[in-house]
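Supplementary Methods, section 5.1.

A reviewer requested that the exact input to the structure prediction be made available. We therefore reproduce it here, unchanged from the version used in the analyses.
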Amino acid sequence: MDATPGTRQWRVPARLPAVKAAGGVALVALGLLLADGDAVRLVLAVLAAAVLLGWAARDVLAPVRLAADPEGLTVVSGFAGRRRLPWAQVEAIGVDRRTRLGLSSAVLEIDAGETLHLFGRYDLDADPVEVAEELEAVRPAR
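The structure derived from this sequence is encoded token-by-token as follows.
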């Protein structure tokens, strides 16, 4: 996605696809090492590795998860597609904060009526609270 003047983008951290791909390779290596003649173990390791590699591929194909400009938002949709949301379609922008087992997390929620778009820290490479504040600053007055 090309950045135009006035556009702010949030993307997956550059190192994340490499970490996922390395995890996939490590799973195959472990499967080969620990299969001990059992084809089921190897197949399960390869399937798990394929999922990780597919997830890494998505990060490479669609690294920009969210973009905002004065006309609206562009969000990732499906595996690697994009969807344009004019500001008039955006009903609410919020952050869902949760604490569980001593760990806290925050998820950016963009409510566009019939669709809800969720973004975590690793989707945005930024704190969802800060992103929500920036989006409200870019959003035209209603």
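Residues 15-61 form one domain. These observations are discussed further in the main text.
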